[in-house]
Amino acid sequence: MKKLQFYIRPILLFTVFLLFFSCGGSDDGPDPDPIPDPVPEPRTSQDVIDDFNALTINVGTNDLQLESIVEGVFWNFRIIVPEAASDSNQRPLVIRLHGAAQSGSATAHQSTECLVEPAFEGKDVFILSPNSNGVLWYEQANILQILALSDLVVSNLDIDPAKVVLTGYSDGGNGSWFYSQFYPDLISAAIPMATSYNTKRSNGDLIKIDVPLYVIHGSEDDLFPLDITQAFVDESIGAGSDITFVVADGLVHNEPCTYVDELKKAVTWLETEVW
After folding, report:
1. pTM above threshold 0.70
2. Which positions ≥6 away from 52 have C-beta within 8 Å?
3. Strands 126-130 and 213-218
4. Which of 52, 58, 95, 233 is most enclosed, with most CB atoms within 10 A?
5. Long-range contacts of 231-240 (CB under 8 A, 24+ apart)
6. How many CB atoms within 10 Å of residue 2?
7. Of 197, 213, 214, 216, whose CA–CA distance to 259 is shortest?
């Protein structure tokens, strides 16, 4: 063993000598490239699932944050859990999309007390209210968020997957149209309010929407004129869509809380005609 050690050490010393003088021993030569930091493993869908399952979700109102599949990008959302929900008593899910999606408000998802909560009071429903993160609901980032969050809550909470409704006001109403048109498997019905959404595709085609809609619009809406929304609705009905269109007499655009009574009528429609 000692003889072997004798031959190894001169070789190691000679190697160090060569590296020193050929790479770093001269001021005139280039510095060696630094060893790069290890690249972190990208997040996966399983990471998101695991993080969701680690959240504490209680009966009542839960304001939560979940890191998306993109590292450093977080989803902020509210889940309201009814007391009556259980394995043997799965309850409906209401996905609520807030208005003013481009405002960037960090608390916009928390404004459920104004409209959706009182309208569904006593119905023992789950309410999922995501934050738009400052972009419209049909932007790619929000499509990923809506599809992922809806799948997570339906898969992990005591929700009846056959009773999922999407509703929203203004920008949120336009989002309700969008998901009913392009992601009908996500929901069983949609309730857009105070909207202006053209269902005509870029090539001019009008395609039947495969889920029923209950569309509510204020007669005095000063942002989205009634006649424009009426025309969009009529075109979609002409393509075969099942749409109940309700004109709310006297209601304007920037007072969403005044729509509570009209949304309660839509809840009755859900219970008697859809579910």
Report:
1. yes
2. 66, 152, 156
3. unpaired
4. 95
5. 232/196, 232/197, 232/198, 232/199, 235/199, 235/200, 235/206, 236/199, 236/206, 236/208, 236/209, 238/206, 239/199, 239/206, 239/207, 239/208, 239/209, 240/208
6. 5
7. 216
